Amino acid sequence: VHNAATRQMDSRTVVTAAASAAALLALSKVWKPCFKGLSTKNPEKSNAEEKNATAHPPVEAAIELFKKVLMDGADGKTLCVGKAPGRVNLIGEHVDYNNGFVMPIAINRVTAMVGMKEKDGKGNFKLAVPDYKNPGGPPKVVEFTAEEFFTNDGNPTWHHYVRGVAALLKKQGKSIPSFRAAIVGDVPQGGGLSSSASLEVATATFLEQLCGFTMEKVEKAKLCQQVEHEWCHVPCGIMDQFASVFGKAP
Predict the structure, then answer these.
(1) Which CATH class is domain 58-246?
(2) Once rounded to an integer, what is the mean pLDDT over residues 210-231?
């Protein structure tokens, strides 16, 4: 009986191992396109191209964008910076919202949010982002009154990730002054690398600096997850936000 049970257990182990190997092979085919270009070193690029590609990482690019289109009207005092990485997940894709085990790691792609308060702290809110569909073209700038900024209109777009974080913090009793900020990221959008979580966490970190408060990391991740649920209509688990809060970009 013992030998039979052992053989049965061994056969199950083999089947499980084979299934795991097959799953990892399938995932590697999905992930492969996502990793293209993640390294800053690319032997196919010329030295000039390589230098140009790494000359303005997101933080520096966001600072440059802010100074170019948003500095006029800012209070000119403290420049606040929020930054958060994207992630890949080694195991557990689509099980985090079912309380399964996951193993995400941060990647060397980030979203950066850079900005200042308005001069009087009571004006409109302004956000600027590059036009990724038209590289080299003018940036996109959106402006909101305070009422518009903190109101969930139920029609999610990219700035809902930012506005949702600010609105939920305000709901918690935090004082959020009007501000203007530039946002630049190199986490591929729609590539399964959590660009949305990266934007949410970068926003929360930016607002911590701007407003002078500090959140517990777990609470920050939970708040950003809540933004996905309530402002962006995405019933996600906690993995992406948790990885972006606790992960460190290499």
Answers:
(1) alpha beta
(2) 97
